[in-house]
Amino acid sequence: MKVSSFATALAGGAAMLSTAVQAHPGMMNSSVLEALKEADFNEPRELLGDLLGLHRSELGAVGLLIRAILVEGFDAQTNEYYDYVPPLNSEACVRDTCCVWYYIAEEMTEQFRGLDGQCTDAARGAIRLGYHDAAGWSKFTGDFGGADGSIVLAPEEILRRANNGLEEIVQQYTFWYDRWSYFGVGMADLIQMGANVATVVCPLGPRIRSFVGRHDSSIPAPDGLLPSPFDPAEKLINLFRAKTIQPLGLAALLGAHSTSRQRFVNPARAGAPQDSTPGIWDVLYYAQTLAARAAPDIFRLPSDLVLSEHPRLFPAFKAFAGPNGQAPWDFEYAREYVRLSLLGVFNINNLTDCSRVLPARTFSL
Ligand code: HEM
């Protein structure tokens, strides 16, 4: 990514794409842009799935949009909303691929937003589930694994140690699938839409473009592609590189630990969060991970500590932790989550953009 050039790219892209692309709000000051440019290290930004074999002229509006997000610096956040949503069982709703997703997103929101307005344990679980389903893929597994719903559809996966703690949210998705598959909804899409609904329901969370149309699979994803919190930094970085996620993207994605609680890394402190505000999508996680000493109410994952200190991730941690870090983090997270949510997906050009079904962002409590 060339951070310095994304504003130009955004301006040019708006003309290129028929789909409205939201330019990044001018909230990043120049010092943060400079810091992010440093954090980027000119790492390659790669295309994914079927986009690798298709010429730009062969792409539809969604293919072009996703291509632009993946490699051209477009903002993956959106402010598109439905003007009018047809009633669920109407013919108009059947004709509109996104319509049913509006009702699903509404039901998910009830589970993900607590009475205090903050995001719930189910929301944390849904974000982690989206990551664990998609991350069962690498460049060496081709079209096997990835965001295909197998974390729920292949019972073997939940028995893997790396998926400890996801049992309840897997049950919730089984329930949602039983309820909504009648409308033609797939598990892989449910899981990725759920992660994006959960993220935007967390106060300050970005509203990430959400696509549907992935293929489901009940074949267990290849084992060994999820990281251990005790792995050394180089091993973790290489694991994510093999998923086309470079260190800046990894640093941004790790910020999901802003809303997380651990149970199995240190069972004696089960439930301890990774920053002091686990119900809010804020940048406190970055500051508290970098701090010389841990705040007493939090537990820092060993992997977060070694990665935050690594020269390839430290500049991003520092930039996100700063007073103007929220907007660049949201931008980077949204873009990298779109990438993550498409790992192992080989019909990207045929997906449908249903971002308009997402609930609104909450900018304050
Ligand atoms: C080096 C990469 C990563 C490692 C080693 C890692 C490890 C962990 C561990 C050990 C836990 C606690 C599990 C438990 O004890 O209950 C956790 C929780 C969590 N992780 Fe990660 N993680 C990584 C990356 C990510 C990414 C990329 C995302 C999302 C984009 C993510 C989202 C979450 C969430 C939301 C939770 C909280 C789950 C809950 O509270 O139920 N993690 N992670």
Automatic annotation (TrEMBL):
Residues binding heme b are: 257
Instruction: Name the cofactor(s) required for activity, per the record.
Output: heme b; Ca(2+)
Q: Which Gene Ontology molecular function entries are recorded, alphabetically? A: heme binding; metal ion binding; peroxidase activity
Under which main EC class is this enzyme filed? Answer: oxidoreductase
An individual GO BP term? response to reactive oxygen species
User: Keyword annotations for this protein?
Assistant: Calcium, Disulfide bond, Glycoprotein, Heme, Iron, Metal-binding, Oxidoreductase, Peroxidase
EC number per UniProt: 1.11.1.-
What remark does the entry make about the cofactor?
A: Binds 1 heme b (iron(II)-protoporphyrin IX) group per subunit.
Give the binding site residues for Ca(2+) 1.
Answer: 133, 146, 148, 150
Residues the record annotates as the site (Transition state stabilizer) are 128
Per UniProt, residues of the Plant heme peroxidase family profile domain are 185-258
Which residues of this protein are catalytic? 132
Q: Which residues bind Ca(2+) 2?
A: 258, 275, 277, 282
Q: What is the similarity comment for this entry? A: Belongs to the peroxidase family. Ligninase subfamily.
Which Cys pairs does UniProt list as disulfide-bonded?
Answer: 98-354, 119-202
Q: What is this protein called?
A: Peroxidase
InterPro entries (UniProt xref):
Ccp1-like (IPR044831), Haem_peroxidase (IPR002016), Haem_peroxidase_sf (IPR010255), Ligninase (IPR001621)
PANTHER family the UniProt entry points to: CATALASE-PEROXIDASE, THYLAKOID LUMENAL 29 KDA PROTEIN, CHLOROPLASTIC-RELATED
